Amino acid sequence: MGTAATAEKLPRFLLPRLSWQPAAPRRLAAVPLLAGQQSRAPRRPRLSPPANDNHHPILSRAFHATALRARDHHFDTLKFVKRLRDEGFTEEQSVAMMKVLSDVVEESIQNLTRTMVLREDSAKATYTQKVDFAKLRSELLSADSTETNTTRGAHERLANDIAKLGSRLRDEVARTQASVRLDLNLEKGRIREEALSQELKIRETETKIEQEVAALREKLEQVKFQTLQWLMGVCTGFAAVLLDMATEKARFLLLGSLELAHDALASVAEIGGMIQPTATNRAEFLTECQSEAFSGIEAIFRTYGSARITGLFDEELVSALPKSCRFVCHKGAGYDQIDVAACRAHNIRVSNTPTAVDDATADITLFLLLGALRNLNAGMQALRAGTFRGRPDSLPALGHDPQGKVLGILGMGGIGRNVAAKARVFGMRVRYHNRRRLAPAEEDGAEYVDFATLLAESDPNTRHIISTKEFGMMKRGIVVVNTARGAVMDEAALVEALDAGIVSSAGLDVFEKEPEVHPGLLANDRVMLVPHMGTWTEETETKMEEWALDNVRLALQEGRLKSIVPEQKDMQ
């Protein structure tokens, strides 16, 4: 096959660059095959270079030298094909090898082209970033310089304005001081003139007074005799009234004072005479009882505050009462000051005012519950101490919302049901324990539980009769509110529970040893304290006074009570 035919079989991209020329003839030394050995492929003949050729036969090249202007460093393909043929390869093998070599070279060229394009794109991106960075840096430097100049100018203008304002203030102060001095001098002169004028008027007034006093003395001497005659007549009539009152037996004893229900008191006093003790302490009161000063009384009207004079209505005091006394009408819902068992032993019936205090006591209960739950006492104390909400390093602890909390009520009477109804408005769930379970209509959605369950399930709000044992059954972080009676709460145990973190906060309206309060409660700003003001409203006090007087009226007229205490229902 000729050279032209061979060239047509080669890849087209090589043909424009072909510049093949025959190479110089070389001597070939044939290597004979071994006997019986078949050659599967043409063996490459061994080249024998001329004797005067000093180059290595394998490293020798058969590339032709092209002209300098045409030298482009491309491979001479036809020459390499001819050399392969000279080495013993067939023309088909040579062409196939060149095709493979062509594919490799073309792929290498494509890869090299892509690499060069990527490098060029990367260089362009780098250059663009450098240009953008230079622009940004220039803009920042320009903005910084502008801002600095603006700030400096504003500062200079502000300094000038302050200097001008200071100068104006100094001038104004100087003018004001001069004006004040002038006004003071004028005022001093006016005061002197007024003082002289007043002194003259005083002297004239003294002269007139002396004249009027002399005239009054004369008139007094004239009226004196008439006055003495009138007094003698009045004394005679008053003595007669006292004599009539002494002959009438008083029927009820008033212990304490009534401040509001004056009409009701007057109507009861018309039924039976009223008497008040003169004693100022318990010893004097007992002496007064034994002296028969209260002989014939049938009923006693007493207030909570009367215990400051009489002390508790215990066995000693009840035994000293007149035998005629059959009723003790207490103004208040709680009657823990009265020994009901001692009264029963002496056939004395006791009454209270159970429902008159429901609203007011429930209101103060909700007030203490919300105040303790929201930890308001600490904030109020900080405000009065002049630190508003408190120092930044010791702000009051966050409080809690009532919504969704469980309110445990021990004793579901009138006050308890009132508290439950108002607590439900705040979204609280109510559980209660009572000596007997209420009817479903009275429960009004409240859940009845036994005493142990009430303590164990108390969520942060509850109103309990509790001591150390009960505190141990409760969750940590409860809120305790007591508006029942001070004696039902162990205050020492409450202080320990507060210090231990079992009780997070508390609200108290009643105390064990009123008017004394446990020092640990007074010192703890997480305890909201109210000095027994659960019923301290004009409306509630009026209702209680009228209710207690109704008990006195029924006792004197019908021999029964309107609201006898539960322990004596069988005596009604």
From TrEMBL:
Subcellular location: Membrane; Mitochondrion
Top-level taxon: Eukaryota
GO cellular component: cytosol; membrane; mitochondrion
TM segment ranges: none
Entry keywords, A to Z: Coiled coil, Membrane, Mitochondrion, Oxidoreductase, Transit peptide, Transmembrane, Transmembrane helix
Region (Disordered): 35-57
Domain D-isomer specific 2-hydroxyacid dehydrogenase NAD-binding per the UniProt entry, residue ranges: 367-534
Presence of the UniProt keyword DNA-binding in the record: no
Sample GO molecular function, one term: glyoxylate reductase (NADPH) activity
Membrane topology classification: Single-pass membrane protein
Coiled coil, from the record: none
Domain D-isomer specific 2-hydroxyacid dehydrogenase catalytic: 292-565
The family this protein is said to belong to: Belongs to the CCDC90 family.
Protein name: Glyoxylate reductase
